[in-house]
Each structure stands twice: as structure tokens, then as C-alpha cells.
Amino acid sequence: MSNYTAVITGGSKGIGADLAQRLLERGYRVISIARGKPEWEAEGAQHVEADLLDPASVAAVAADIAARYDVTHLVHNAGLIWPNLIEEAKPEDISGLAQLHLGSALTLLQAFLPNMKKRGFGRVMFNASRAALGAPTRTAYSASKAGMIGMARTWALELAPHGITVNVVAPGPVQTDNFWGIIPKESEREAELAKRIPVGRLGQVEDVTNAFLFFCDPANSFVTGQTLFVCGGSSIGTLTL
């Protein structure tokens, strides 16, 4: 096993699960934080249940992990969409997703940061979204995902002197449960959406984890504060979901 320990939020399925398993293949220890039971098990992986919408739950799990492990990588992948047109959107949507997408990341990093600074090494990553550029029905989601980008750039500036990089992956439409919660699986709407993406297809989980693996790599220490859109070119123009 390598000398790296990665904490991945939302690691029970989808992008988080794929990234966790690929890091395990590289010898990392992996700790997944998710609300539900994982859809996978593997040697070297630990699954922790916590509700990242609940600040107290996040604080408790962060303190516990920090006390037991020297965390080197934090990948904040967990997310919810909560789509609504403006007329149906509520302020609570914004505050809820701000806690999930931003507040929980802050609490986790604050717990792991002392060890990262002591080591002089760390990798912090966010799973944002092409929707940070705007998308219909995404008032709270777009706002909080755009917030990830701003927060990551601030953290990158503060942490660069300590050997800690902070970067963002911003996927476009990727075939995961979150996507199929909005677009019916194997529907005509899904096929039409794929045609409107410049590369002519929807994203796969591996497309996103490939980007995370680049940012995870200890050799990539000269890249920080960046947002990589993994979106098939859909961030170049307008894409209506």
C-alpha cells in the first residue's frame, strides 16, 4: 500500500465509487463517506455513513477520520441536484445545497489540514458541474457548484505554499443515477441530448475519474486553482438539459 489516504465523499456509487476503486488499484487507502450503504466492497477501503447535509454529522465524522488517519487526498464528490424552476425554488434549497457542496467540504478540510501542512503535501478536489455556467431549473445547484470554483481558487492561493493543490473537475452530462433522476434512462430525450453535445455522446463515469486521477497524482504539483470541464465540449456553448 502507498503512503496516501484518500477521503472521497459520495464514494458509495457512481463517480465516487469508480474513483475509489481506481485509487485502491494504485495502492491508496480509501475512506468513503456517504449516506447509504456502498454498492461495492474491497480490501483497503473503509465506508463511513454520514449525512453531509447535517453540519453536526459532518463535524463528527471529520474529527473521527482525522484522529485515525493521515489524510492526504480529499475528493468532495457528493452532490444533489434539487431541480426547480424559479417559481418553485426556495431559499432553503440554496442553503441546503450550500451546506452539502460547500460547508461540508470546509469542515472536512479543516480537520485534515493540520496533517497535510505537517507533511507538506495534499490534494484537494471538487466535483462541480458544467451547470456552474448556468442551466435551466438549477438555481440552487448552479449557485453552489459555481461556489465550489470560487472557493477552490481561494483555497489554492492559501495552500500553495504548503504543497497542497486544490482543483475542480466540472462534468457535463454523465450517465449516473443523478443524471437519470432528471433524464429517463434510454429515453428519446437522453438520445437527443447526446446529439447536442459536440463530441456526439454522453459522458461516462470513467471520463470524469480520469480527470480526478490527474489531479490526484503527486507528480502534478504545478497545477492548482484550476477547473477542468469534462463535458464533451458542452461548456463552449449553450446546452439545454
Automatic annotation (TrEMBL):
It is an enzyme of class 1 (oxidoreductase). GO terms for molecular function: oxidoreductase activity. PROSITE patterns: ADH_SHORT. The keyword Oxidoreductase applies. Its EC number is 1.1.1.-. Residues 4-172 form the Ketoreductase domain. CDD domains: SDR_c (cd05233). The keyword Oxidoreductase applies. Keywords: Oxidoreductase. Pfam families: adh_short_C2 (PF13561). Belongs to the short-chain dehydrogenases/reductases (SDR) family. This is SDR family NAD(P)-dependent oxidoreductase. It comes from Sulfitobacter profundi.
